[in-house]
Amino acid sequence: xxRILFLDNSIKDDRYKPLSYWEPVxxxxxxxxxxxVGEFPANLDAYSHxxxxxxxxxxxxxxxxxRDEQELIRTAVDxxxxxxxxxxxxxxxxxxxxxxxxPFMRAYHNVRPL
Length: 114
Hints:
Layout: E1 3-8, H1 18-22, E2 29-34, E3 49-52, H2 64-78, E4 82-85, H3 101-109
Parallel strand pairs: 1-2, 1-3, 3-4
């Protein structure tokens, strides 16, 4: 099975349409969900790969959709899914508590500082 969950994190889809940039290079069939408006798949069973787009939101925002996406990422890691994520807004520009970002990324994204 090779299918991509394309998770669109754009806030204003009239200005930023990430699928228009990425669709030409996606190698497998995909399903599009708009996370910022609360669209998520019921489960991840149908997906071998997950693509999380960038956003003008911050991963530190305390919103339902950010928390739901973080839970989806935890589940995907537990299931061994292949994930690629693009940049969110810099936490330094959006929160005084930016120290939470790197521990979350290390724990759930296997990100290592350069």
